[in-house]
Amino acid sequence: MNDKKTLLIVSAHAADFVWRAGGAAALHARRGDAVHIRCLTFGERGESQGLWKQPGMDLATVKRRRREEATEAAGILGASIDFYDCGDYPITVTEALRNRLVEDMRALRPDVILTHTPRDPYNLDHALTHELVLRCRMIAQAAGHESAHPPIGAPQVAIFEPHQPEQCGFQPQVLLDISPVADVKLAAMKVMGAQSHLVEYYGDLARRRAVQLVRNGGAPGARHAEAYQRVFPVTAGELA
Question: Distances in Å between the alpha carbon of 71 and those of 94, 189, 210?
């Protein structure tokens, strides 16, 4: 029996997956699970402040640099990565974009999909990505949808923690101990030079979530954790 899992991380921008789900990616990759990242955009317009401050910067160069950074980060985490390059700030959902993500879902057949919150007043591209993921999951399940691949089952969707959780209505339901791969996540974060100011923030957040993990019955030695919220119920045969 194959007990290996497949994770699909759908990231609105090229760096979102690193800050918010880098620990989960590295942890599962280390266990031998398949981890696939799909970036809808490079974050080239709104999330590349460090690059746009450089003299003579242009859009093509920003895209190239962001692709290089995200590709290197994914490699450090042990994940595959692909870029849809659909243009950020704003992301526009087209039929082609929807069909591409549906086909990826059917081809990869993930056990769990990680993505953004349904509400983010600071970045509507994040909320749009959440809706797109749920819509494509629905289509990918439809027996009547024409595709080169069969319909998928019912993969769980896990929401990773947004930058401003209180304003986004985020409820941490799962505290994931990423202590064994904290150094891997840190290394991946450090290559994201266009947003280097976030390395310290997300390092601190992981330590705070680890305190909560221990208080809620997690491993006493946990030092780094990530928080997730599930979209769908979890099935079980018992409560204990």
Answer: 25, 12, 28
Yes or no: say if 22 and 9 are a contact pair by the CB < 8 Å rule: no
pTM recorded for the entire structure: 0.96
The pLDDT value given to residue 2: 66
Map tokens 């590709």 to a residue.
71
Nearest alpha carbon to residue 105 among 130, 156, 54, 140: 140
**With bands split at pLDDT 50, 70 and 90, how would you rate the model's confidence at 9?**
very high
> How do beta strands 225-230 and 174-177 pair?
antiparallel
Q: For residues 73 and 23, is the Cβ–Cβ distance under 8 A?
A: no
Q: Which two tokens stand for residue 55?
A: 């003299």
The CA-atom distances, in angstroms, between 239 and each of 212, 234, 236 are 21, 11, 7
Q: Locate 48 and state its tokens.
A: 């590349």
Q: Cα separations (Å) of 157 from 51, 102, 123, 130, 222? A: 33, 15, 20, 10, 25
pLDDT at 197 over 60: yes
The per-residue pLDDT of the chain, averaged, comes to: 96
CB-facing half-sphere around the CA of 68: CA atoms within 13 A = 9
Residue type, 126: H
Answer yes or no: is pLDDT of 125 > 70: yes
| Inter-residue contact 88 to 41 (CB < 8 Å) | yes
Is 50's pLDDT higher than 90? Answer: no
